[in-house]
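We close this part of the discussion by returning to an individual protein. Part of our work consisted of pairing the sequence of a single chain with a tokenised description of its backbone. The amino acid sequence and the backbone structure tokens for this protein are reproduced below.
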Amino acid sequence: MGTMLLGNYSVNAEGCERILAQVEDDEARAASSSTLRTRVTDAQWACSSGSGVVVRALEELWSNTLLLQADAAETRIGNAVAGVRQAVNIISEADRAMADAAGASLAQLQSGICRAPSLTGTR
């Protein structure tokens, strides 16, 4: 694939793919979500000797806000990765098609230049 020019930018398809793989394989997001859940559970346990209002409020916070936001963030990250990958593939395909067309034009031009001269109309 290589580096492709796009306006004033150059797109390095291999570099983009490496970055996308790093984002997809990053375990830090899952670890952060797990740590957050552990901390909420720890807070619930610390408050469990009371009436349970705080424990229920923390569970609602986790279920109705934190978990939903974490899931939404994962979805947005996945969508962004897919969108960038699709854009890079489109650019790569267009670059390849343009190179193929240029090669075909060059071959056609060269075949016209290298054609044997015809001697029509001479005696």
Remarks:
- The chain has three helices and two strands.
- The helical segments are 13-25, 28-46, 53-113.
- The first strand starts at residue 3 and ends at 6.
